Amino acid sequence: MAAVAQHSKFSKIAWPVLAWVVALIFFFPIFWMVLTSFKTDADAVKPENLIVFQPTLENYLNMTENYDYWRFAINSVITSVFATIFTLVVGVPAAYAMAFNPSRHTKDVLMWMLSTKMLPAAAVLYPMTFLTKNFLGIFDTHFLIILVLSLINLPIVIWMLFTYFKEIPKEIIEAGQMDGVSTWGEIKDILIPLAWGGVASTALLCFIFCWNEAYWTVRLTTTDAATLSKLIEGNRAPEGLFFGRLSAVSTAAVGPIIVLGWFCQKQLVQGLTFGAVK
Amino acid sequence: MAGLTLRNIAKSYGATQVIESIDLDVEDGEFVVFVGPSGCGKSTLLRMIAGLEEISGGELSIGDRVVNEVAPAKRGVAMVFQTYALYPHMTVYKNMGFGLKQAKTPPDEIDAKVRAAAEILDITPLLERTPRALSGGQRQRVAIGRAIVREPDVFLFDEPLSNLDAALRVQTRIEIARLHERLGTTMIYVTHDQVEAMTLADKIVVLRGGNIEQVGTPMDLYHNPRNMFVAGFIGSPKMNFFGQGDLTPGGAALLPDDGHVLGLRPEHLRPMEAGSALVEAVPDLIENLGEYALVHCRTASGVAFIAKTTDMVGFEKGKPVPLGADPERRALFDKASGLRILSA
């Protein structure tokens, strides 16, 4: 009995401490980045100024001048929004069909879609670059980035939607058929309202993935369709000494998505645990 | 208003045949009950009539129109599901009007029809609620209401009472019977409960393994079962079956040989003089329900069976009792085929 009490007292202290330590380790790079964004470039590289320094807003105020922040930001918004829309436009009907009219190959199709995520992206880097640049002529266009972002997110989106749609009793869809609703009406009037939480959190997650995507957006763009990922990546080497400026632009790049995630936190958690706590 | 005709209706999933070949006529305004054990194909048959399952073979007509390839909503049928299948995000009013809205019915007409149906089912005060705020019985009424507003030629019920508790089941059963009385529309009702079948049906269709075992009025099936399966399925408690070795010498003489079985319903068994008795058994458990008692007996050969008695006269636990039944209450079956032999 005493041992148990002692044990629980220990874990009451130890676990939260451990959790905080782990959280701080994860959070530190972001903290460091935000902190650095308020330093001058000179202060940024001095170890003694890690915590104590004279804060400045200069990096933010000069951001549009130093880097063409808004152009990259607008590209990020355009590509992420349209890729998310396109992914849902394709994903919702696909998941609907597989959830309510499964064939004996449905499981295989789902596995196959997921397997495309297992292919190392680097393996197709050269063909993708060559084909889009020399053959199709769509290199560095919004169209290409939207297409690529859609395609890489489609498997995960279909999987998520499929799981949510599976939760809806088939009879409700059948009742809709008896009531004479069209396939589109079924999706619009029954399926989406019922799986709203799931669809919203899938869309949000897809948007976050699109915004954060760096591998392809960096490699398939130069200027016209370059996103914030490209801005950060592209300035890493030549402006390596300007840590303050770079931190400010990085903070401004991840800021919107963190704010968005923060506001939608409840929705996101609700959506992701939809099946579990039913 | 319309009848139905099923000709050689078959259903298979790949190589698995679930319904072989069904022929059935349903008259206009008739209340037909499909009954059978689970897996007998009764729900599949109903879903084929509804248009929710494709028909693999044969011809289905509603009225005089072949509807094999017609969409569910265009067949003039409405279905009430076992799980109610209400739209959880819509109010009762919208649930009931949804089908009419799909058919582009003017709003004032929808309103009139929904309110009329709500009046019939006594759910007017619930119209603005969502299904979540309703009890099981109320949900089932809404599901029935949703079917009524569409003014179908044929109502289809798929085990509509099995999610309700016992008291509500009886009440709703009576309401469905009244509704049929009032609307006079053709109704097809699927259940595994023979009490529902007996009380509701004009015509019962007993199914087993994807085939029709017998079609007839409830009394027809009770008095003249075509085979041992129907005899055992219709009636509660089920009919008792005895082989030659289970009977008294007098009883055994009724069977031509060992390949036959004597069927006696519990409610027809009564104590008799040893000379005219058919079977002798020891009561080992008596369930007395006041109005009647179920006497669980066992013969010397080890066969357990039930006798139903209203007065308990002659029954005593542990004391052997000779039992018999009137000649017209006996049924003789061929053991191998299960078929009833009419001239015993």
List the helices and strands and how they pair.
The complex is a heterodimer of chains A (278) and B (344).
Chain A: H1 2-36, H2 41-44, H3 58-61, H4 63-66, H5 69-100, H6 106-115, H7 125-135, H8 142-166, H9 170-178, H10 183-194, H11 196-212, H12 215-219, H13 228-234, H14 243-263, H15 265-272
Helix pairs in contact in A: 1-14, 5-8, 5-11, 5-13, 8-11, 9-10, 11-15, 13-14
Chain B: E1 4-13, E2 16-26, E3 31-35, H1 42-50, E4 57-62, E5 65-66, E6 77-80, H2 92-102, H3 107-121, H4 136-148, E7 154-158, H5 166-183, E8 186-191, H6 194-200, E9 203-208, E10 211-216, H7 218-223, H8 228-233, E11 240-242, H9 249-252, E12 260-264, E13 270-271, E14 279-288, E15 293-299, E16 304-309, E17 321-324, E18 331-334, E19 340-341
Parallel strand pairs in B: 3-8, 3-9, 6-7, 7-8
Antiparallel strand pairs in B: 1-2, 1-4, 4-5, 9-10, 11-12, 12-18, 13-17, 14-15, 14-17, 15-16, 18-19
Describe the overall structure.
The complex is a heterodimer of chains A (278) and B (344). Chain A folds into 2 domains: 2-58, no CATH class; 70-272, MetI-like fold (Orthogonal Bundle), CATH 1.10.3720.10. Chain A has helices spanning 2-36, 41-44, 58-61, 63-66, 69-100, 106-115, 125-135, 142-166, 170-178, 183-194, 196-212, 215-219, 228-234, 243-263, 265-272. Chain A has 15 helices and no strands. With 344 residues, chain B is of the alpha+beta class. Chain B is built from 9 helices and 19 strands. The longest helix of chain B is centred in the middle third of the chain and has 18 residues, at 166-183. The radius of gyration of chain B is 24 Å and the shape is elongated. In chain B, 39% of the residues are buried.
Keywords summarizing the entry:
heterodimer; A: 278 residues; mainly alpha; MetI-like fold; globular; B: 344 residues; alpha+beta; Rossmann fold; OB fold (Dihydrolipoamide Acetyltransferase, E2P); 2 domains; six-stranded mixed sheet; elongated; ATP-binding (chain B); ATP binding (chain B); P-loop_NTPase (chain B); nucleotide-binding (chain B); ABC_transpr_MalK-like (chain B)
